[in-house]
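Why do we care about 3D structure at all? Because function follows from shape, and shape follows, mostly, from sequence. That is the central idea of this module. The next example makes it concrete: a single protein chain, its amino acid sequence, and then its structure expressed as tokens.
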Amino acid sequence: MAIQRIEVKFSEGFRGELLAKNGKAKIGIEKGELAPYDMLLGSLATCLYSTFLDVIEKKRITFDESNVIVEGEKRKEIPATLEWVKVVIEISNVSNEKGVLKAGDLAKKYCSIYETISKVADMSLEVKFI
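And the structure:
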């Protein structure tokens, strides 16, 4: 099992920097900084897309460009876990639309972050061909 590690250095209240093996990100609530749910939804988008690409490559499906959009709403109750999350993958000029739809279904099944969030939120994935 691979151990994952990040470090977050804080200064000036809730201003900080997330440091990971391959990069870093500014954390906070000001312009140019990422808030906690920005990172959570971003983690979902990147995990799901990475898993999606793995399936696409195995199926030898080609496409030109793609975009992943994630929206979610937090509950009003404390703790304010996510109530629902919608992921949209926009993809252009695909060689096999049915294969892409199947790849989306498999990505939902095998993306660990999608599975984790699905324990508290209603999840949906839509693939749009653009």
